[in-house]
Amino acid sequence: MRYLVRARVKPGREQSLLQALDNQTLGKGSVAEGEYLRNMQDARLYADQTARWVEVCYCPTPLQEERPYWEQYFELARVQDAHDRRRCRDQSGAEPWACSDCDCTQRLECKLAMSGESFVRALRNELMNRTSPVPEKP
């Protein structure tokens, strides 16, 4: 199944999240290990400071496996079906693991890609602005 995830970075966790992205250790140990990095590359940041991305998950409970990894860095604001569950070939049993190569959320993912701003870029910029010295006034 595919889910639309909305989340906010926990205060004080920005630097460690960026480090996990740069070191490619985000999600290390999870069966969905590489998915975390892809999710963050596709994630968009919105004016309300929520990051949004579409995530593939095969657990009986949405993000059951992934939740502990995400919750190290994020407060999950909302996780919802990204498309009609009744049409999911994996969910119905018609085609196990169909979500890996499915294009059922292509429209949603295109819409996300065209809105907000790159989450990783925004995170990087925010951290750079925090550490840049403020020029003194003459």
Please, could you describe this protein's structure?
The chain is α+β, with helices and mostly antiparallel strands. It has one domain (2-130). Helix content is 35%, strand content 19%. The chain has helices at 14-22, 33-42, 67-70, 89-92, 106-113, 119-131, and strands at residues 2-9, 44-45, 51-56, 74-81, 117-118. It has a five-stranded antiparallel beta sheet, sandwiched between helices. The chain is globular, with a radius of gyration of 17 Å.
The neighbouring-strand order within the major sheet is 4-1-3-2-5
Report Rg: 17 Å
Number of domain modules: 1
Average residue pLDDT: 86
Give me the count of strands: 5
Q: Topology, pairings included?
A:
Layout lengths: L1 E8 L4 H9 L10 H10 L1 E2 L5 E6 L10 H4 L3 E8 L7 H4 L13 H8 L3 E2 H13 L7
Antiparallel strand pairs: 1-3, 1-4, 2-3, 2-5
Protein traits:
35% helix; alpha+beta; 5 strands; 138 residues
Quick synopsis:
With 138 residues, the chain is of the alpha+beta class. It has one domain (2-130).
